[in-house]
Amino acid sequence: MTAPPSTTPTSGESSSAPDALRELRDALRRFALERDWDPFHTPKSLACALSVEAAELLEPFQWLSEAQSATLPPETLRHVRQELADVLLYLIRLADKLNVDLADAARAKLESNALRYPVAKARGSSRKYTEL
Amino acid sequence: MTAPPSTTPTSGESSSAPDALRELRDALRRFALERDWDPFHTPKSLACALSVEAAELLEPFQWLSEAQSATLPPETLRHVRQELADVLLYLIRLADKLNVDLADAARAKLESNALRYPVAKARGSSRKYTEL
Amino acid sequence: MTAPPSTTPTSGESSSAPDALRELRDALRRFALERDWDPFHTPKSLACALSVEAAELLEPFQWLSEAQSATLPPETLRHVRQELADVLLYLIRLADKLNVDLADAARAKLESNALRYPVAKARGSSRKYTEL
Amino acid sequence: MTAPPSTTPTSGESSSAPDALRELRDALRRFALERDWDPFHTPKSLACALSVEAAELLEPFQWLSEAQSATLPPETLRHVRQELADVLLYLIRLADKLNVDLADAARAKLESNALRYPVAKARGSSRKYTEL
């Protein structure tokens, strides 16, 4: 599953939409550069920060039932939206520092997940692939 | 920072590049549907799974120094690449279930981060905005 | 591995029971010393490892409903028991490296929790103290 | 908050010291009962909460170097002490709900760790046992 090449716009053509992952990666590079934050952004520290944000994303749900978690009050949803954003930003930043193309990595993982979880075996089951 | 609208291709024009986040979101919908996994994919459970993957991403780094974390052996990098992918996939899935546009949320958070961390105050400092 | 009682029993006296937290702290010191692991056991690395183990503890629960989580199959409970142990071991080790008396810290926190969550206000509510 | 000794002292006998884990377990039972919190304390929710606290414990360290993490300013150490306490409290509570004796589980895990990491092979190495 590969994206078509970006083409040079000519008159009458609309330019190809910028890929959000790339756009955010570049914005984060500028953000860190302006603030001299690169020395702090070692992969280990970024992996720590991402883990912390993932837990901040989990916190609003911790005492909810599964059903309640699907009908969040607007205030909670607003907060969760910010935490989703925080996780994505650190994920993009960490992938960038490690020279990993996030979208390609995700596509490759989806393909190997399809092999690990063939429909016939995995349908309706939450079992890990090692137990299918 | 909003993306231009996708335009309907006409002859001679190239179609706009599919956004990776949207493409992966749709692939994940199909993946879960084929396997009857939607009942398991409550927001709370997805938030748990994302947190678990974030920790699996941290684990290869836990005993490394900051410097070592920037020069991972190929085998470790291969593993980390898969964990980056796992985090992205759960993040996209969770945002989808909550009807949150991940890219928009990330752009909005970057803007508010710029206000919380003005360059003049934040330059060269790892302090949290509450302590600037 | 049970610790010997701390005092030599004499007739008429019962020996004081060794405190498990202290016993495990000492066992972990010996374990790390024998293996030359102290250089790896910086507080940051131990905090990472603890976070990773906490997620390994969460993983068996991630697709379960709240009700299912209270009736784990024996195999799962066996696994969860090991993860509970891993979290405790890293917690004791990290507290030791930071010279923190874990039991005292926990008692103090319980007291401040009682002030943050007075029975009259907190009864039957999962709200955070900032929202009571 | 110190627990009263478990036996009534009679002349010539010293009372056995209460084990901190047991004392805190009982204090947590009372705390939750007084506030009608037991319905919220399903194992899944407690495992979520523990994971969240483990991340709050990691956060003060995320931008520090390994060396800095060993010399925390007093204010930071005070905060970290509270997070260590939070992790212990949720760990004790979760083990209680699952009928797991935490100290016994930790001792058993230390023993199996000694087998997985024999001194001769593990000395000076941070490798996981699967790679020794």
- Indicate the proportion of strand residues of chain A: under 5%
Can you summarize the main beta sheet of chain A? Answer: none
Please give the alpha-carbon distance between the first and last residues of chain A: 27 Å
The amount of helix of chain A comes to 55-70%
Secondary structure blueprint with pairings:
The structure is a homotetramer of 132-residue chains.
Chain A: H1 20-34, H2 43-58, H3 66-69, H4 74-97, H5 102-116, H6 119-122
Description:
The structure is a homotetramer. By secondary structure, chain A is mainly alpha-helical. Chain A is about 60% helix and about 0% strand. Chain A is built from six helices and no strands. Chain A has helices at about 20-35, 45-60, 65-70, 75-95, 100-115, 120. In chain A, helix 2 (about 45-60) runs antiparallel to helix 4. The model of chain A is unreliable at about 1-15 (pLDDT under 50).
